[in-house]
Amino acid sequence: MYNITLIPGDGIGPEVTMAARKIIDATGIDVKWEIVNAGANVYEKKGVLVPDEVYTSIEKNKVVLKGPITTPIGCGFRSINVLLRKKYDLFANIRPVKKIKGIDTPFENINLTIFRENTEGLYSGIEKKETEGAAQAIKVITKKASLRIIKEAFDYAKENSKKKVAVVHKANIMKLTDGLFLECAREVSKEYPDIELQEVIVDNMCMQLVMNPEKYEVIVTTNLYGDILSDLCAGLVGGLGLVPGANIGKGIAVFEAVHGSAPDIAGKNIANPTAVILSGAMMLNYLGEKEKSDLIIDAVQRTIEEGKYITKDLGGISTTSEMTKAIIEKISKK
Ligand code: NAI
Ligand code: MG
Asked: Which SUPFAM superfamilies did the record assign (predicted)?
């Protein structure tokens, strides 16, 4: 039996995480879900963003399926997502972006995985107002954090017979910070003679990904660029409703979609649950349950390919619950 922490989150979070939970349960795997919540929804009721029980549960179970959490823009509280990633040193944010059959996109063979450094960079949280008319943010890049995320990307490439890793940077302008990240990539790449290191400047990478995404297999980059490129890549395969993710540290892992709380569609039962369902599949794989993980991926794939029960963002008319039900039927029939 697995003990897993489930954080429903804000906006569409409760709808899509519930869908993922039902689908994981439908595989027959024995999971004891511990449901604890954090975010804007909890703040409204309890006046606290992350109740202590959330930390206790994460530290006890060590594996988490998480819905998105709203972060106010400008003023207000700082991101709970960034906080959890830093607190538990979840240094590797891994986001596989893959063409799904049945979704009409300009490219047939997109299959790349983004490794985003998840604990520092421009998201280190060191920001200050100099005067009324000026503010500063500090970008932190350390050799330690850079080497470990880059190694993670190369190890993944090696284990999955990938031939190339692209390091994305802006070392021409940010010579010390991105320069260090690039240097680390060059250093690590020497240990992997069979894997080619592609060095790509981030603005060019945006253009390359829009024009030639099939050229890339693994991308490793700093926090902010990784955040932006993830949404760009999601757009290449059919949108944010489809791309899953994992935040992995030493011993603790939090699985969540790339997308946010989507307040524009929250509470309407129309959100696409695929991204969180596939994050759940990544979680099962992490737990060593590859067969169950593949079962879920296959059921999602076939449901989308059939196109009968898909949500509006994919061109369908089904609700979140109808799509979830269709996926469960495919799992049960196997
Ligand atoms: P978003 O990802 O929530 O939404 C962007 C657009 O994509 C919206 O039009 C939305 O309707 C659509 N979309 C997203 N997920 C979808 C799904 N599953 N099915 C169908 N359509 C979907 O980004 P936005 O609006 O910039 O952020 C909203 C809030 O979410 C913000 O407070 C932000 O800070 C937070 N956020 C939280 C994240 C997390 O908890 N990991 C990640 C990203 C954003
Ligand atoms: Mg993002």
From this structure: Isocitrate/Isopropylmalate dehydrogenase-like
